[in-house]
Specification:
globular; Rossmann fold; 9 helices; four-stranded antiparallel beta sheet; alpha/beta; six-stranded mixed beta sheet; single chain; 252 residues
Length: 252
């Protein structure tokens, strides 16, 4: 990604399915190295917006620019090559493979070894080296040989981030990383996300766990009925009567 342009620019994003408007006129700019939280009531359009950014869904109006490059018509894998990575609300690990092998598959895909993804790993090969580094970065090195299916939900989330790191993304979309995570795992996962951002990556995160999100992000973007209601610092946004009304039904 270009160093002198915003990591992400959404220009008037709209999405209409049938007669229903899902997104309308969403314009948002995210600077390189910034962490922005996306919040809003259920059905506000947050995950749909992530689908548009990552290429899962093509908007009916507007443009998606990554580092100034228009990628609106590009597919998911094409956007991934530009440095975009994403996690999803539901776990996306291979439960029968151990943690190292899960990350190794992501590393092999990045290294261009897609034709031999299921090759038995060799000690010291490039993909295994990347996998070990990424697993250590999220604090799962002691579980490298553990089957992903038996990890706690919080550790599965860490594993997904390790898999993401193996693809070397510059812009990361985290879709509700705390969903389903037990209270005992929250602090560790927060620290992983903080390190992910601290490494210089740009992060856009949807999260319902407000205390966690407000303690991590630089700015908050509030979605409501498919529109961008407010954008600003956590304190300013949470004091906004329009935001309070969207969440609680009336200003407080």
């Amino acid at each position: 990604m270009s160093q002198d342009r915003p990591a992400l620019h959404l220009d008037g994003i709209g999405l209409q399915i049938g007669g229903a408007r899902i997104l309308q006129g969403v314009t948002l700019e995210v600077a390189r190295g910034e962490m922005v939280g996306v919040i809003g009531p259920n059905g506000a359009g947050k995950t749909t917006l992530f689908d548009v950014i990552s290429g899962v869904t093509t908007p009916t109006s507007g443009r998606v620019l990554l580092a100034g490059e228009d990628v609106t018509s590009r597919r998911v894998h094409q956007r991934a090559r530009t440095g975009l990575g994403r996690t999803f609300q539901t776990s996306s690990v291979f439960p029968g493979l151990d943690a190292r092998e899960n990350v190794r598959l992501a590393a092999q895909a990045k290294l261009g070894a897609a034709t031999s993804l299921w090759r038995f790993p060799r000690r010291g090969d490039d993909a295994t080296g990347v996998a070990d580094r990424c697993i250590a970065e999220v604090g799962l090195d002691h579980h490298a040989g553990t089957a992903a299916g038996v990890l706690s939900h919080g550790d599965k989330r860490k594993l997904e981030i390790a898999m993401l790191l193996a693809t070397e993304p510059e812009l990361v979309l985290l879709d509700e990383p705390m969903a389903g995570v037990g209270s005992g795992d929250v602090a560790g996962l927060v620290e992983v996300i903080r390190r992910l951002h601290g490494s210089g990556r740009t992060v856009l995160m949807v999260e319902h766990h407000m205390e966690v999100l407000l303690g991590l992000v630089d700015r908050v973007a509030v979605m409501h009925h498919g529109e961008l209601l407010a954008v600003g610092t956590p304190d300013a946004v949470m004091a906004d009567p329009a935001v309070q009304s969207a969440y609680l039904g009336e200003p407080v």
